[in-house]
Design goal:
disordered C terminus, 76% helix
């Protein structure tokens, strides 16, 4: 991982130092898991469930994303998905839908940083 990509990840809300500590310092493992995050199907499932008004399916997808973000030290997204899961569990579908206004740009920033930002390095 080069310094530019690390800076992009940090700017997008990923605590790279914490993630590396969790990966026992293995940049290769972190990069592999970040790549897998790009394949994570729960974001599309979450959006679809919210659109269909299915709170249980939305909660399951948001919970999966919360876990993935926590494991990868995506602190901003982790906090947002935690709030969304809590809202869904409390039966507050409108609040969970409103949180997508914050989640969508944060998710886009993280996935762009993983891909290497505008230079398309990944």
């Amino acid at each position: 991982m080069n310094l530019e990509q690390r800076a992009q990840l940090e700017a997008a809300g990923v605590d790279v130092g914490q993630a590396l500590a969790r990966m026992m310092g293995s940049e290769a493992l972190l990069e592999r898991l970040l790549g897998k995050f790009l394949e994570e199907p729960n974001y599309a499932a979450l959006c679809a469930a919210l659109e269909r008004g299915e709170p249980e399916a939305a909660a399951a997808a948001a919970h999966g994303l919360k876990g993935a973000c926590g494991n990868l030290s995506m602190t901003a997204l982790y906090g947002l998905f935690t709030r969304q899961v809590d809202a869904l569990r409390a039966g507050e579908l409108a609040e969970a839908e409103r949180l997508m206004e914050e989640i969508a740009p944060a998710y886009a920033a993280v996935t762009a940083a993983i891909r290497g930002g505008a230079d398309g390095a990944r």
